[in-house]
Request: fold
Amino acid sequence: MAEVTYERYEGAAAGGRLDAFLATYEEVYVEPPYCEGPRDVAEFIERYQVQAQRPGFRLVLARDGVEVVGFTFGYRLPADTRWWNNLLEPMPEDFTEESGERTFVVIELAVRKPWRRQGIAAGLHARLLDGLSVERVTLTMRPEPEAAPAQSAYVAWGYRKVGQSHPWDEAPFYDAMVLELR
Ligand SMILES: CC(C)(COP(=O)(O)OP(=O)(O)OC[C@H]1O[C@@H](n2cnc3c(N)ncnc32)[C@H](O)[C@@H]1OP(=O)(O)O)[C@@H](O)C(=O)NCCC(=O)NCCS
Reply:
């Protein structure tokens, strides 16, 4: 187990911490299956500014000394979210109905390569969800073999696949996962 420390930020404080983990984001997501380049990173920055303003936004950083080695963030789905509209097979209304308090969505979770398999993602994920009063957590993940570590992690933590998600025309097909907390 690495000697890591964790910091959690909420709302505007989290929005202001992008600079702390942006280099980590670039380092991790240049790898397959993501293969992100400068344009993807620019889009990520834009999205982050918007997401950070959503109710319930949280960011957790993992540090080894002063160095950021991993991060995760997410927020509560608002009542008028279109999140579930991205499912290829529609789910019943009592499943997709949101109140603003029902579901927390994990947007990103990443750990730098030299620090992997030391429980850091597990530590980040636990701190991201700690104390939330939501019913469930959702996320989407890539189904390719290169994303096997993420797939194994989410299944080990109790997530189950509820369908396939295709958020925009050029996007890949993702597995939509849900973790029931109650
Ligand atoms: C997925 C990722 C965050 C896991 O980080 P990590 O700190 O290595 O994960 P942990 O050490 O906390 O492992 C948690 C569990 O995940 C699973 N896991 C992690 N890496 C794995 C691998 N290479 N092979 C199989 N299972 C793996 C295991 O179940 C593990 O529990 P265990 O070690 O008790 O067996 C990391 O591999 C990563 O950043 N990948 C690239 C970015 C990414 O895909 N993020 C997810 C986007 S949806």
